[in-house]
Amino acid sequence: MAAQQNSSGLKIYDQKPFFQRFEYLLRTHIIKTVIGLYFRILSLPFFRDTSILPTYTKVYPCRPTLTNRIFIPKSYKPDDALLPLFLDIHGGGFCMMSPSCDDKFCSEFANTNKVLVVSIDYPKSPAHPYPAAVKAVTDIVNAILADKSLPFDKKKVAIGGFSAGGNLALAVSQDDSLQGKLGGVVAYYPPTNWTTTLEEKLATKPKDSPPDRLEASAPAFDWAYIPPGTDLEDPQLSVAFAPRDKLPPKIYIIGCELDLLCGDSEVMARNLANIGHGQRVGTEHVWEQNGVKWEKILGEEHGFDATPATGAKQIRVTERRDQMHADVFQWLSEEVYI
């Protein structure tokens, strides 16, 4: 990330030289192409796990080009009580991937916990830079909340997302149209602050950390998402600057120890938690205070739960992923779905 201050003292995203813009464009499209091909292969009938497919998909008139995926628990019957709702936003650096990438999480979360899950799509950069995704997700969330065909309890609504999706969940939650409608937000390893440099982010990691998987791609993804001249302290971009009273009453932020984004996320969690008079309870790495929960997953990298692995690592990652999601649902059931 590169920033400069304008005459008003604002930190703004600066314009890159032509050849650097060309390099970032090329790098972004190469990554998008490779990742897109990988997921297209996984979607082929031979590889596709049909047990995790959504109940159905739905397009809302407010955003007719975006298809959302609805997961109704398989055990649900029409005469059952209305379900809690979890709105999921997928990751991908704001520039790639799709809601189908979260099918495994959404299906398991819905069926294990008897929760209605809606996986939301959004327009991708660089064709649709900030704030296009924020505006689109806001529109779709409002459409979902007004959708009488979905069997959910409007008093039990949470939003969450992974990586870029976690940022969008925190950004959208601040919108005036959603005030009082979202009981909680869950942000898995989100980017939260573009005013800190890449070097500053890397400096927060443990000294013996392996190379960070985001280090090479982050500058290109930032360029693709953030238009030149953007105020980097805009709270719907750098969500660390969000006013506490604009966010849902309950907040759960999860960071990964070996992720360059973790330091900023922890600072955000601490700043939010310090608003109020409640005492902090928990441990150094997992604690709660004033409606905010922070958890640092030790020894794991960004997106560890969605990264292919084999052997002993696969067993470890699966166990930690399942425990992470179980902890999230327990928190939701105790703090939001009540």
UniProtKB/TrEMBL annotation:
One of its GO terms (molecular function) is hydrolase activity. Residues 87-281 form the Alpha/beta hydrolase fold-3 domain. SUPFAM superfamilies: alpha/beta-Hydrolases. Keywords: Hydrolase. Gene3D superfamilies: alpha/beta hydrolase. InterPro entries: AB_hydrolase_3, AB_hydrolase_fold, GDXG_lipolytic_enzyme. It comes from the Eukaryota. This is Related to triacylglycerol lipase. It comes from Rhynchosporium secalis.
